[in-house]
Amino acid sequence: MAAANGVPVLWQFKASHFNEKARWALDWKGVRHERRSLLPGPHMPVVMWISGQKSVPVLQIDGQTITDSTRIIAELERRFPERPLYPADAAARQRALELEEFFDDEIGVHIRRYLFHMVLPDAGFTADLMSPGFGAVARAVYRATFPLTRVAMRMDMGITDDGAARSLARFEAAFDRLEREIGPTGYLVGDTFSVADLTGAALLSPLTFPPEYPYRPPPLPEVALDFQSRFEKRRGFEWAREMYRRHRGTSAAVNA
Questions:
Q1: CA–CA gap between residue 167 and residue 106 (Å, rounded)
Q2: Predicted local confidence at residue 1, as pLDDT
């Protein structure tokens, strides 16, 4: 199911911060690629078939199938060294990679669990959030069957009241650390944009919803707006939006 013309294929959810991390890296490096968007839930048979596991993003490139946003960026760095995301200095590179891992584990995972805990009861909004750009029939069917998808999401991500409370505490601690890591230049490591900045800003996108995000979300419900309002005056919130303004750039995808 790779592109016949040899163009790399990114299998993705449009509304996913880990997928946005991989998209941003491809766009930053100007790697022409095809995006194949899937709906959460119905995606699993397709992704299992192409990669042997159930999560996206998945990148197919030159006969290789690469899973996980961190591994995708590592492979892009190896193949396309121009516009590097890894600092040249060994110590700075190690710090950037450590921050990438920390943000993945402490921001990415926990903001996802907490926000889904808030919005999953609103099946209409969540289904619309997950299906931008799909046709009217596909969106209607997805809305109608979303209660089944919601059950699977809750089980898969451990979305419970207790789990959400723990995730909120860990996210807030990670957000505090991100703010402490912002240097005088506005970057997290040194004086240039790196994988640490890309990861932090991308994984905060479900909170910040920057205008440069490539897919427009539906109007946010009150619970999401209230959560956003708790952080929108914070330095980390503005930093994340500034990273998008400075560095999100234009898409290198060959399709929408």
A1: 8
A2: 62
CATH of range 9-79; options 3.30.160.20, 3.40.1370.10, 3.20.20.70, 3.40.30.10 = 3.40.30.10
Q: 90-247: which CATH topology?
A: Glutathione S-transferase Yfyf (Class Pi); Chain A, domain 2 (1.20.1050)
Query: Could you tell me the pTM of the whole model?
Result: 0.95
Mean pLDDT of 222-244: 97
Token representation of residue 183: 């240097």
Q: Which of 56, 75, 77, 78 is nearest to 67 (CA)?
A: 56
